[in-house]
TrEMBL record:
Biological source species: Sphingobium lignivorans
Protein name (database record): 3-demethoxyubiquinol 3-hydroxylase
Pfam family, one: COQ7
Residues holding Fe cation 2: 60, 112, 144, 147
Cofactor: Fe cation
Its job: Catalyzes the hydroxylation of 2-nonaprenyl-3-methyl-6-methoxy-1,4-benzoquinol during ubiquinone biosynthesis.
Pathway terms, separated by semicolons: Cofactor biosynthesis; ubiquinone biosynthesis
Cofactor, how bound (note): Binds 2 iron ions per subunit.
Keyword terms of this UniProt record: Cell membrane, Iron, Membrane, Metal-binding, Monooxygenase, Oxidoreductase, Ubiquinone, Ubiquinone biosynthesis
Gene for this chain: coq7
Record's signal peptide: none
Length: 183
């Protein structure tokens, strides 16, 4: 008598992959909050862009809080790099704002472009296996796209050396994603 064939692997991400997803998503939202804090520290609350930046920061804070709860509920270890992202995020936000408001918007456009791609890959990987996680990612992805579009509408592409700045920030974002998934 032959034994039954093993079940084929389920589509979507496994538990370890989901833990890495949550770890990097929480770290990314934390970093975004810090970037906007750096931008607002330089631009102040009287700059015409400050209201838009504060609105985006509030959305990022809501995203971060949601992923904080999911990490606790699912017993996922957060990234050990959070102290570094605390400083690096603020520094990136402040540095781009010091260059000018267009550079601050270029920073947002670059990061949100990368995060849109990142969240899209995660949604493909999860499929319908984890509605709580995929639902949060879908909702937050739509807001990240809104942030990117707002940044472009408010002069991101007019930043000095925009293609170089955009490309370097996206590259840094990819590195942060890879490091936060692992560590």
């Amino acid at each position: 008598m032959t034994s039954p064939a093993p079940h084929p692997p389920r589509p979507g991400a496994g538990r370890a992959d989901r833990a890495a997803m949550l770890r990097v998503d929480q770290a990314g939202e934390f970093g975004a909050v810090r970037i906007y804090a750096g931008q607002l520290a330089v631009l102040g609350d009287r700059h015409p862009m400050s209201r838009q930046i504060a609105h985006m920061a509030a959305q990022e804070e809501r995203h971060r809080a949601h992923f904080d709860r999911m990490i606790v509920e699912r017993g996922v270890r957060p990234t050990i790099l959070q102290p570094f992202w605390h400083v690096a995020g603020f520094a990136l936000g402040a540095a781009t704002a010091l260059i000018g408001p267009e550079a601050a918007m270029a920073c947002t456009a670059a990061i949100e472009t990368e995060i849109d791609d990142h969240y899209g890959r995660q949604l493909e990987e999860i499929g319908e296996d984890d509605p709580a996680l995929s639902g949060a990612i879908e909702e937050f992805q739509a807001e990240e796209v809104e942030h990117r579009d707002t940044a472009i509408a408010h002069g991101a592409e007019a930043a000095p050396a925009y293609p170089l700045l955009f490309g370097m920030i996206r590259l840094g974002c990819r590195a942060a994603i890879a490091l936060s998934q692992r560590f």
